[in-house]
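Purpose: get a first structural picture of the assembly so the mutagenesis plan has something to point at.
Setup: two entries, given in the order below. No constraints added.
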Amino acid sequence: MHEALAAIAEQIRAAAARHEPLRIRAGGSKDFYGNPPRGTVLDPRALCGIVSYEPTELALTVRCGTPLAQVEAALDEQGQMLAFEPPHYGRDATIGGCIASALAGPRRASAGYSYGGVRDFVLGAKLLDGQAQLLSFGGMVMKNVAGYDVARLLTGSLGVLGVIIEVSLKVVPKHQVERTLRFVMSEAAALHQLNAWGAQPLPISASAWHTEALFVRLSGSAAAIEAAAARLGGKLIEAGVAAQFWRGLREQTDTFFAGEAPLWRLSVPSSGAPVELGTQQLIEWGGALRWLRCTHGTAQIRARAQALGGHATLFRGGDRTQGVFTPLAPAVAAIHRRLRAQFDPHGIFDAGRMYPESHDANHAR
Amino acid sequence: MNQSIDLERQRQVVTALRTVLSESCVLYREEDTRPFECDGLTLYRQVPMAVALPETESQVAQILKLCHTLQVPVVPRGAGTGLSGSALPHAGGVLLSMAKFNRILELDGIARTATVQPGVRNLAISEAAAAHRLYYAPDPSSQIACTIGGNVAENSGGVHCLKYGLTVHNVLRVRALTVTGEALEFGGRALDSPGLDLLAVVIGSEGMLAVTTEVTVRLVPLPQLARCIMASFAQVTDACHAVAALIAAGIIPAGLEMLDQAASRLVEPFAHAGYDLDAAAVLLCESDGTPEEVSDEIQHMSAVLRSAHATRVQVSNSESERLRFWAGRKNAFPAAGRAAPAYYCMDGTIPRRHLAEMLLSIQSMERKYDLQCPNVFHAGDGNLHPLILFDDSDADSVARAEQFGAEILEKTVQLGGTISGEHGIGVEKLNQMCSQFDRATLDAFGAVKQAFDPSGLLNPGKVVPTLHRCGEYAGMKVRAAAAPFPDLPRF
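Result (structure tokens, whole complex):
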């Protein structure tokens, strides 16, 4: 067993013996995300490095503590990328945190082969569960239906089922050309336009609307981009400015995200009506992601998201006492509880990160 | 197999089912239940104790409740086209046919989604969406018959999934009933949901975690144009290298399929696709998108194929020609059915770099088991479909076919692949699950099953092998290896 792996297993065993809660944390770039973390820190960063990367297989296997930047640099050298354009939120982001949080960037709602969230590109994963057993799910191949798809279940699990040790990902070729267009448009017009374009075979890889301006990024072959740009119109944005703009969105360094006002993330059907809560707003993913800056009450925002057919997360700041995620339906919560009892029988992993205290009471501690 | 039915128990269960369903929707006489004895994998057969044909979600919920009370296993079934026996009935169980759930509930051209009942056929979704110039991307070969409920159960693929993904990438939401008949939803109409991604684990769970009653799928724009290249190769290894060369060139073809010579010769008289019968392997390589994209990509792909030693490169010049190229590939299974009394379709996926090695191994197995095995496969995904031709009226031929299949699966695991790319484990590959996964991981699958279905009544005996079974299989393998001349056929 890898020395670092053995050390993590030992820390899990010791915590289990003492019924002491563990908080899985590497670079801490996503400390702000989820309910307030608790427990003794388990830092898996000693477990790092790319295990295998075969560009012609479109597959990469990497240990959890590997810096996200290192993974992206290795892919870039071969003209490939992580399709879901994950946010780093800091220099210390690791691939483990990327998988555990399942946060995807602007390319999430892209057309074509780069469409999909983090879990859509997960091929396999290794896990140390609450009894320090090493489990291996999925594999390194593109198609795999042997056994339940636990590797994707671990994606976005915020560490509540165990420590993600290693992950295999499908990677994709970078697009030859990217071009960004700008349009002046109201919110309602932009939502209408984005959905209309989404129903057409256009190489749109990202979109963003804020204060009457709609930005659309096209990605693909030179000829395809030329033809699409001619069809869409709009004003061409200089490449350097455009790259900085999309980076600002992906990393939330854009001025929209500055300041202390609570940041809400509403994930809704792209065709959902305008939110109309009278807040500062930024729209991504062709209309499917609405960021709000406001101090409205949790109940009001959740109700609005639900009415639009989606859910709301208190992403940064604000009053986090009511839980930052939309509560689960009771039948679904029961499955969550039983899954955690199976994977983490001693209840040592920081489940509070995903579930507020009130929902946690039933889990044996 | 084919255990007999406990008639006393049958009377009890049928009486209970009739409190929920009309008489015509409860089948129990053998002449009525016989058609349900197997799915697309005909090697395994079992007549169910009873067949229930509900028409509403509330009836399904009541059936599940009463079966739970009576502790009767329930096996859900769609169109029964599955190829791994995951819809194989249980002698003491109710076969829950979802055939009557055949309505498209909503087709939203703006949100690009369709919400359908589980018994809706895969192709019917695309046909309905065509009015909006949209379609449902996953296209298993059985798409004219297979249902979306079955696709969800198996995480079905198709020839376009390298670019457009599998079922799991194209389903947004599943409404389902738990084993106790409680309704719940996995996923939603948005692109993500709070909490653990239970949708991802329900898709591909072979009807063992919940009973699907409604599915919302993502629709994508119909490409303006699609063209296909048919390339011939003098060596199978050249064709395999060409596949890697295409990927290395940064191309994700809409479809990338290979047929070996035996397969081309098998399908040509049946499908008249125009395949090069002198080629050791034929590659079908598709581009779709806008006319500009397609023109660019076809040019790029043709150049890569030529430099990878293609002996002939032919590009479809019309939609009918493109469909003709595909006709051979899509009809490989029926053609196999015509060429031999029976065929056994395998489904391993391996890292693409081992394709040539795998094909050579299969050739030597053909000699070892004295059976023919043409190969068609999703080359882009490394997903192989060797078709073992055998005679199902000859017990010896059946036994050789089963052993041939098992050896292919073992080789798949050895090469770092998986025993199933898209057809599922069902009952067929239970033994090889013991080879691919260690006990702790198999127990974790058992734990997932427990979390969704603590009673273990939903489709029992599939996917996750028991400790006992793995022990017996390990013993069998040891004995086979210890026998003298293990490579000689012994029939």
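Chain A has ten helices and 17 strands.
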